[in-house]
């Protein structure tokens, strides 16, 4: 038994070292740096001054507000659309593998590249989206240059980019549902809606819980989409700034790594708290 344990630790050692060096150490280092000020090569202990700064900075609260709104809107909307599309493909569409590959392509494509394309689609003057809206005699807002539309633009883009991963995972979960459930339901004359809500959805609860966790964490870390859509900026007047964009700006542009790390610690705590609440909620739902 002891020999097997030694061998197990030997095989686990590279992974443990890797995770410690690239995951655990940066978290601890960021926590220490949040109590320091100065440049990276000459940081001095200043206590809670960085936390006092961010808590009194309106830009920080705008970033947190935008991030929370983005997560609260984009995650459930994207997940609901993903479930509907996955169920439709699973139950109605032939050649599912072709459509799965098509939906998965955006996931393996650079977000920057997709963002550049969407920047032209969202263009207020010659963008494809406004062209379609005008053709339907609907209002055509300035998606990129109007501060009031910045967050909406990011949410639309975030919903679209998250569909790929969600649909592929949901399709895998749907395939693992025992078809005998549906056979018995057909014998008792169950409708498609009844089969979906009484068989499919309960079976998908663990997968939905997983996707909720992954999507919430990704939503709170949103940065690349903002950078790509607004050409390296956070929208007009920083209207599209997010928590990670705020951290990047304070660390790389302003040159105050201590402030950036304080914001990082706060964001980390928020993500942990929201993830904890989400998992508790899904456990209660699954328990029913």
TrEMBL record:
Residues 64-278 form the ABC transmembrane type-1 domain. The keyword Manganese does not apply. GO terms for biological process: transmembrane transport. The chain crosses the membrane at residues 9-28, 68-90, 102-122, 148-174, 204-223, 258-277. It is a multi-pass membrane protein. The keyword Transport applies. It is found in: Cell membrane. Its main location: membrane. This is Sugar ABC transporter. The lineage of its organism: Bacteria, Bacillati, Bacillota, Bacilli, Lactobacillales.
């Amino acid at each position: 038994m002891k020999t097997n344990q030694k061998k197990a630790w030997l095989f686990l050692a590279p992974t443990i070292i890797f995770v410690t060096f690239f995951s655990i150490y940066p978290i601890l280092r960021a926590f220490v740096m949040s109590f320091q000020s100065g440049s990276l090569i000459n940081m001095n202990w200043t206590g809670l001054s960085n936390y006092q700064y961010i808590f009194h900075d309106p830009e920080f609260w705008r970033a947190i507000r935008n991030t929370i709104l983005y997560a609260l809107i984009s995650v459930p909307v994207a997940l609901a659309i993903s479930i509907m599309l996955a169920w439709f493909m699973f139950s109605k569409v032939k050649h599912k593998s072709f459509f799965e590959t098509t939906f998965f392509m955006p996931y393996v494509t650079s977000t920057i590249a997709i963002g550049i394309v969407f920047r032209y689609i969202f263009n207020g003057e010659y963008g494809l989206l406004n062209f379609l809206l005008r053709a339907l005699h609907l209002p055509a807002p300035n998606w990129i240059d109007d501060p009031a539309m910045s967050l909406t633009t990011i949410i639309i883009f975030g919903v679209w980019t998250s569909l790929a991963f969600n649909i592929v995972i949901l399709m895998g979960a749907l395939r693992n549902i025992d078809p005998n459930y549906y056979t018995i339901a057909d014998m008792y004359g169950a409708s498609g809606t009844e089969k979906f809500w009484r068989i499919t959805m309960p079976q998908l609860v663990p997968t939905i819980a997983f996707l909720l966790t992954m999507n919430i964490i990704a939503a709170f870390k949103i940065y690349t989409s903002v950078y790509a859509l607004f050409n390296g900026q956070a929208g007009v007047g920083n209207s599209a700034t997010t928590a990670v964009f705020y951290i990047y700006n304070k660390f790389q542009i302003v040159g105050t790594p201590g402030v950036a790390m304080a914001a990082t610690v706060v964001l980390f705590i928020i993500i942990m708290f929201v993830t904890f609440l989400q998992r508790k909620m899904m456990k209660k739902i699954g328990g029913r």
